[in-house]
Amino acid sequence: MKARVPSLILHRLLIAALTLLIVSFAVYFATSMLPGDTATILLGQSATPEAIAGLRKAMNLDEPAILRFLKWIGGLFRGELGTSYANNMPVAALIGDRLLNTLKLAGLTTIIAVPLALTLGITSAMRRGTLYDRIVTVATVGVISVPEFVIATSAVLLFAVYLRWLPALSLTGDAHGLMGMLRVYAMPVITLTFGVSAQMIRMSRAAVIETLNTPYVEMALLKGASQSRLVLRHALPNALGPIVNAVALSLSYLLGGVIIVETIFNYPGVAKLMVDAVSTRDLPLIQSCAMIFCVGYLLLVTAADVIAILSNPRLR
Amino acid sequence: MSPIVQIRDLKVEARTDSGRRVAIIKGVSLDVAEGEVMAFIGESGSGKTTVAMTLLGYARPGCWIAGGEVRVDGVDMAALPEKERARIRGTKVAYVPQSAAAAFNPAIPIMEQVIEVTRIHRLMPPEEARRKAVELFRALSLPDPDHIGDRYPHQVSGGQLQRLAAAMALIGDPKVVVFDEPTTALDVTTQVEVLRAFKTVTRKHRIACVYVSHDLAVVAQIADRITVLKGGEIQECGTTTDILERPQHPYTRQLLDAFRPAPHARAVLTDDAPLLHVNGLSVGYGPPGANGKPLVLAVESVSLTVRQGTNVGIIGESGSGKSTLARAIAGILPACGGDILFDGRELWDSARKRSRDQLRQLQIVFQHADTALNPAKSIEQILGRPLTFYHGLRGKARDARIDSLLDMVHLPRALRHRRPGELSGGQKQRVNVARALAAEPKLILCDEITSALDTVVAAAVVDLLKELQRELGLSYVFISHDLSVIEAICDEIIVMHRGRMVEAITPSARQQPKHPYTRLLFSSVPKLDPTWLDGLDPQSERMQAASGG
């Protein structure tokens, strides 16, 4: 019995590593297939064929694709993300600050969204069928159905244009002191919280309701346990697996899916960097950003799996 | 002294899926005295569990107490607010669930759950509660009482969990304990020990018990008085001996009759070649190991012979491999050794390789009609499919045949347009049998087809099978854990234990089984005699006496 958990966890980690390899393969070749030749784009349409051929040789673009892929993967392992085509800076340097910014935004959103969503989800499960539950359900369904850019632009209209409480753009340079931080982060964090909470509320409510309907919760009720004891002690530990997975899936969105929010608020994060890289066909940058999103996603999902395994005494 | 439980004109209502309000308990009144064991007996849907649960002031979701009084130790549980009820649950009234395996939280160690009542109601410090729990474990004759509480629910057996659930109910020194079919999910050999443990402990502490069951013989062992319920009303209430010996109500008589099945008239044995001959069959699960055998052998070299027009019963407790054997004969689960001869010809181990005619002649009926019948199809479609598949019947010919099949299993013809979900458990099982008959088989494998049914309904299904046999000359391989059902229909009984065939015996010779396990199994089947349990030796002694003799 005891030896199963390490082997299960190891299994998950191996699968994660394998997935990452497959994803890197897909990312590399998908970006390579983007229309247009890199050398042509860099040199412009008026470039002579000789100049293009020279550049291709200099950038090793004439080598077979599989060889370039292996070189690229090898580079990733050594921490060399390559050089940006657009401005000849190391990709690592370009990404460094941006990644930090994205993580800051994601972290702040997590701190607010996860407790909020779980509280709402669990309490509405406890009072299912009541007015409170219906209001939460209607609100979450409403929020899910409204696209993020609508929420973001409405927030800008309301807080920046009419009320003039907050700046319309989130320039991290202005984040001095607590008030400065608040002013810069308030709107993107609110927008993202709306987006990621809805899913977590729905999932945690469903998971808790499912466990509340089990015979062991009825048994606890017949032992005289209070509502909160039923939920916190008996239902929640058994609903942990699905809840953690829902949280991980929602949070993974914060790493890669924030393109709209970062663009609207002009926030200098990785997602915006990637969008800019696409418009300049800066392949090394696109590839590195995509890989960062994938790693983040895999980390979260694998962590959720490991927590689900550890929380199940049948596997311990 | 006034009785500890007084129920007066209790009414419980429920809301159906369509929003209609229906009365499920229609004015029940009864008393239970201190230290008395009152049994509620009736078929499923009779409301016996619903009434018992109102003692805890509880009605299952969708139901509510609509009127009347449920006084426990002077307090009306029906009138109390939820908070006050919670204070009484676990301390004055406790509950032992039907399936302890489902009622224990899988994520919490057993001891924590057993002493939870003392934590919730702050009855005693945890250390003291643990000592008390260990004492209870000992009194309930659980193995390793000092450490069994450290385990998780999935690490102990079903019979042990059921006793642990009793300990969980008794930890708060309740005055009344509600037992909700606590032994229904157990094997007979386990059931005896669990019953004995319950009886000893509750009698010692003079605890009043409400014991819900559909098994009259079990109830006879433990109850002082019996209340017979049907359709949410009390049909009859009296002392155990009164009910058993002088039943007044027709339903009570029906229950008793179902328990005394007419003994099976042994078929005249012919010297015909056997219909089915199974020789040294082994079946297992998992990938093949080094010796070419599967990882786990569920059936090990079992041989049996079924002659035309006779029935063979296979009995054994859960995990003995009896269902696996049936699946192997049917070709659902290919055997890994031995061979099967049917009608003189060897059968392939996998149903896929058998000819259509071989498939037709050997049919299987599964235990749960609920899962065996496609809920999205009408009865007509369910019965029509094998008719088209095996006999190529279509249109009017098929319709006529469906009608005659419904007649055969005594179902009204109008039922053909319904779906399985609209039928009762007994009706569904009849459809299940009719589907096998549609193929016009020579042999039907019946895998626990009566175990999900109430006593009276099960007896009717067995009668139906006998009748069909007389008319159609069928043979059955009848698998069950219930000896009385097997005796009612079989010419030969095969006893299985841990995947092996222990003994083959005829019902007439069942008083003199040779193998110790057979003796243990047969002696564990409860009898209607209320003194049976008290007169029975403990399991260990019976095992020893059996092996010594």
Gist?
Chain A is an all-alpha fold and 316 residues long. Chain A is built from 13 helices and no strands. The model of chain A has no long low-confidence stretch (mean pLDDT 83).
Characterization of this structure:
The complex is a heterodimer of chains A (316) and B (549). Chain A has 316 residues and is mainly alpha-helical. Chain A has a domain at 92-310: MetI-like (MetI-like fold), CATH 1.10.3720. Chain A has 13 helices and no strands. The mean pLDDT of chain A is 83. In chain B, helix 18 (455-472) links the parallel strand 17 (443-447) and strand 18 (475-480). Chain B has 22 helices and 20 strands. In chain B, 47% of the residues are buried. The mean pLDDT of chain B is 87. Chain B folds into two domains: 34-46 and 87-259, 3-Layer(aba) Sandwich (Rossmann fold), CATH 3.40.50; 276-527, P-loop containing nucleotide triphosphate hydrolases (Rossmann fold). Helices cover 37% and strands 25% of the residues of chain B. The interface between A and B is medium-sized, with 23 and 29 residues.
Can you lay out the helices and strands and say which pair or pack?
The complex is a heterodimer of chains A (316) and B (549).
Chain A: H1 4-32, H2 38-43, H3 49-58, H4 65-78, H5 91-126, H6 131-145, H7 148-162, H8 177-212, H9 215-222, H10 227-256, H11 259-264, H12 270-279, H13 283-310
Chain B: E1 5-15, E2 21-32, E3 37-41, H1 48-54, E4 63-72, E5 75-76, H2 82-88, E6 93-96, H3 100-103, H4 110-114, H5 116-120, H6 126-139, H7 158-170, E7 176-180, H8 188-204, E8 208-213, H9 216-222, E9 225-230, E10 233-239, H10 240-245, H11 250-259, E11 276-288, E12 294-306, E13 311-315, H12 322-330, E14 337-342, E15 345-347, H13 356-361, E16 362-365, H14 369-372, H15 379-391, H16 395-408, H17 425-438, E17 443-447, H18 455-472, E18 475-480, H19 483-489, E19 492-497, E20 500-505, H20 516-523, H21 532-535, H22 539-548
Parallel strand pairs in B: 3-8, 3-9, 6-7, 7-8, 13-18, 13-19, 16-17, 17-18
Antiparallel strand pairs in B: 1-2, 1-4, 4-5, 9-10, 11-12, 11-14, 14-15, 19-20
Helix pairs in contact in B: 7-8, 11-18, 15-16, 15-17, 16-17, 20-22
